[in-house]
Design a protein that fits this description.
With about 190 residues, this protein is of the alpha+beta class. About 35% of the residues lie in helices and about 30% in strands. Keywords: Amino-acid biosynthesis, Cytoplasm, Histidine biosynthesis, Lyase.
Length: about 190
């Protein structure tokens, strides 16, 4: 089973995260940020991943350190669970409509981390979650997982819908990219 556990402790957060790529779509635990937990649960369900999170963070400051650090640890967990990235489909893309909003994700598990993020918000936050942290989460995730990640919301009005559609699109695209696809690296170079 492709699974890993990462523990990361700083002065701002203490996180233990377990990721199973071949799970049943379950999220357990809490970040302490209700809307972010909702997004992590959506990510687990739509990716078919099991995600267990045990953490504390300096939420008395704001949500920044907690959200970014979960992105770091989730990226590290994905990289470790994949091993050498051999035998996976490597690429994935997906469109998710959520009421009036549409989100698109395309990704390449290439070992070359990069993020293109295009989403405008109407409000500064959804609950205790700062909307700007969506891009920070995905940047931390892409950098630490070695993923080229493109995320875009071309239209939408409700910030909750836009952000949730992004998490779901990323989960579906990742599910496709990590699916088994024979042996070896899917690369004309022979390595990723």
């Amino acid at each position: 089973m492709r699974e890993s556990t990462i523990r990361r402790t700083t002065r701002e957060t203490d996180i233990e995260l377990t990721l199973s790529l071949d799970g049943k779509g379950r999220f357990t635990g809490t970040s302490g940020i209700g809307f972010f937990d909702h997004m992590l649960a959506a990510f687990a369900v739509h990716g078919g991943f099991d995600l267990a999170l045990n953490m504390t963070g300096d939420l008395e400051v704001d949500c920044h350190h907690s959200v970014e650090d979960v992105g770091i640890v989730l990226g590290q967990a994905l990289l470790k669970a994949l091993g050498g990235r051999d035998g996976i489909a490597r690429y994935g893309s997906f469109l998710v409509p959520m009421d009036e909003a549409l989100a698109f994700c395309a990704l390449d598990i290439s070992g070359r981390p990069f993020l293109v993020f295009d989403c405008a918000y109407r409000n500064p936050s959804v609950g205790a979650f700062d909307c700007c942290m969506t891009g920070e989460f995905f940047r931390a995730f892409a950098q630490n997982a070695g993923i080229t990640l493109h995320l875009r919301v071309p239209y939408g009005e409700n910030d909750h819908h836009k952000i949730e559609a992004l998490f779901k699109a990323a989960a579906h695209a990742l599910r496709i990219a990590v699916s088994p696809a024979g042996e070896g690296a899917l690369s004309s170079k022979g390595v990723l």
